Amino acid sequence: MAKYQLPVDKQSVARELKVNLGPDATSRQNGSVGGSMVKKTFEFVSGQANKR
């Protein structure tokens, strides 16, 4: 079980980027999914901070 609930999930980001995750995905594709997840998480956190 995850310690925190992230505002994004890997599968939805992969669908947005049209990346098929799995053993045949390149490290570049996997990296783009991870990078997009980080970007969306920071946007979410900064949005929450602005509400305070």
How big a fraction of the residues is strand? under 5%
What distance lies between the first and last C-alpha atoms, to the nearest angstrom? 29 Å
Uncertain spans, ≥5 residues at pLDDT below 50? none
Global geometry: elongated
Q: Round the mean pLDDT to the nearest integer and report it.
A: 88
Q: How many β-strands, per DSSP? A: 0
Largest sheet: none
Number of helices: 2
The SSE string, one letter per element, is: HH
Derived structural class = mainly alpha
Rounded to the nearest angstrom, the radius of gyration is 13 Å
Helix fraction?
55-70%
Explain what you see.
With 52 residues, this protein is an all-alpha fold. 62% of the residues lie in helices and 0% in strands. It is built from two helices and no strands. The mean pLDDT is 88.
Structure described in brief:
This protein has two helices and no strands. It has helices spanning 10-17, 27-50.
Which terms would index this structure?
62% helix; 52 residues; single chain; mainly alpha
Map the helices and strands.
Blueprint: H1 10-17, H2 27-50
